Amino acid sequence: MDRDTSRLQDDVFVASPSDSGANKTIGLEKRRFLVLGLFCLYSMSSAFQWIEYAIITDVIVDYYGVSELAVYWTSMIYMASYIPLMFVATWMLDMWGLRKVVLFGATLNAIGSLVKVFSVQPHLFPLTFIGQTIAACAQSFILEIPPKIGSVWFGPSEVSTATAIGVFGNQLGVAIGFLLPPAIVTGGRDVPPPSNSSNSSLTESSLNGSSQISSLDNQLVESQLRTLFIGSAAVCCIVLILIILIFKDEPSLPPSIARKMSVVAENSNKEMHSNSLKNYVRSLKVLLKDVPFLLLFVTYGINTGTYYAIGTLLNSIMLEYYKVSDAGKQIGEIGLTMVVAGLVGSVLCGFFLDMTKLFKLTTVLTYAFSMAFMLIFTFTLNFYTKIWLDYVTIGLLGFFMTGYLPIGFEFAAEITYPESEATSSGFLNVSAQIFGIIFTLTAAEFQKMSAFSANVFMSVALAVGLVLTIFIKEDLKRQRANDQSTNQTASATAEDQKLLTGSTDQKSLARMTSNSSCYSTGAGY
After folding, report:
1. CA-CA distances (angstroms) from residue 245 to 38, 99, 102, 469?
2. CA distance 445 to 459
3. What phi-psi label fits residue 295: left (phi over 0), alpha (psi between -120 and 50 degrees) or beta?
4. SS3 of 473-505
5. In this structure, what DSSP letter does residue 201 have?
6. I need a surface site. Which of 144, 227, 395, 506 has the fewest CB within 10 A?
7. What ranges in 52-190 are assigned the alpha helix state H?
8. How many CB atoms lie within 10 A of CB 493?
9. Residue 240, Cα to own-chain centre: how many angstroms?
10. Nearest to residue 58, comparing CAs of 275, 206, 269?
């Protein structure tokens, strides 16, 4: 494409000078990487808190004197709170903009972490749960943000990778959550060494849910928990300060043609756009009538809900197979392996999508491998003497299950265009939370029989999800719209000319604003 044509494509959607976005051309700012990186830190600090209790379930049960189910709910409260708050968060995103919503969520995140600092007493589990609930509410202002940042700040060839990196931050927090709590909160365990091997099945009392910990030094646990909570709170507060100082709502130039169209449409019809609740309800109705999206809604929930259940129950599942003095540390390292491998998977899958645009094929393959390695993990857990095999199988499981997250977001954005990516991704996250709660509670019931039964249940669920995924119709609306835009030449269409001269009628602009959903992320670069 020659230089003159490129310039014309940059300017073809500029509105009349009377519009506030009229003189905007397309461009990329270096600041976009700083914004994305800061969001990743924010997401990381939230995700860390999600798993910090569940990964040391045995210690929390003994110290606070509560049931395992109560500890599981410190994880599931993240899922339960997101379901109603997602709709509030996405509506607020339209009314307030990206910066204010991120700032609001980061404030909740910091407050929740601070409350937990004052909950380190055996009788204060209700207070620690309140702090966890406040931090959980902050998650509602995080999970739908990656595709929003990708479309608002990044160009057409970067958006899938940017979305994947946004998910990467959340998974990095989970990884640290698996690693640090077992390393910091050792709990003064008094576990007798195994007689023959480093791994063996637990005694009958352990299988029945009794604690492995015969003695806990409460003073030691109190000191360790306080260290854990203060460190977490310090990070959350620092992130909040950085967001106040650095985070911007949007770049000075739109990064893509479609984002530019969306901005022009909004600025030219502010009255219609201000009725965001009406537009939001309209967008929800459209998605609920979209059969391919509804199939993706279910399959995404099954895959991600299984991942949440594994993370929540990992301590209890693995303790059935490990009885060693450093069992908690080993379990934390196994969880870390799953998440770190997933970090690599999410970035590589996002990069692969940017390069190939093979959405359906990539979705099916990652789902199939997720199911396969869940089955392998289920059966290899019985090989007590081969610890390395557990690390390998759960690492590969994490690679594909986490790699599926950005793929699901992007596939949803493609098949639901021109609806907002953040609306579709918000719906997918609601599905993940619903299935996460259902699968965690159901797998916990199966676990009363054996950990093997719980794992088989989750494997069967993934098999059902794979079958449903195969039936999702691939209609890449966003990619098709982008191709049409980039193939335009110096001869603009009549509609484009109207937009250039500012003569587009209000009904057309209203339609454009409505199609961009309640907060117009400019879906379809």
Report:
1. 11, 11, 13, 43
2. 15
3. alpha
4. CCCCHHHHHHHHHHCCCCCCCHHHHHHHHCCCC
5. P
6. 506
7. 57-64, 68-96, 98-117, 125-139, 145-153, 159-184
8. 10
9. 19
10. 206
The two tokens of residue 461 are 């669920």
Whether pTM > 0.85 for this model: the answer is no
Q: Give me the amino acid identity at 510.
A: A
Distance CA 330, CA 350 (A): 30
Contact 475, 295 (CB under 8 A): no
Q: How many residues does the chain have?
A: 525
C-beta separation of 350 from 160 below 8 A = yes
382 and 452 Cβ atoms separated by less than 8 Å? yes
Give the C-alpha distances (Å, rounded to integers) separating 325 from 65, 190, 213. 22, 7, 10
- The radius of gyration computed from the CA coordinates of the chain, to the nearest angstrom, equals 24
List pLDDT tens digits, range 69-110. Answer: 999 999 999 989 988 888 888 778 777 878 888 999 999 999
**Domains of the chain with bracketed CATH:** 29-248+274-485+504-515 (1.20.1250.20)
Among residues 433, 451, 218, the alpha carbon closest in space to that of 307 is found at 433
Contact in structure between 508 and 264 (CB atoms under 8 Å): no
The number of helices, as runs of H, and strands, as runs of E, in the chain is: 22, 0
What is the rounded end-to-end Cα distance, in angstroms, of the chain? Answer: 18
Question: What is the per-residue pLDDT for 51?
Answer: 87
Q: What are phi and psi of 445, to 5 degrees?
A: -70, -45
* Residue 71, φ and ψ in degrees, nearest 5: -70, -40
Cα 370 to chain centroid distance, Å, stands at 17
Q: What are phi and psi of 502, to 5 degrees?
A: 75, 15
Residue with the larger pLDDT of the pair 24 and 420: 420
User: Distance of alpha carbon 495 from its chain centroid, rounded?
Assistant: 38
Cβ atoms 150, 168 nearer than 8 A: no
Q: What is the largest CA-CA distance in the chain?
A: 84
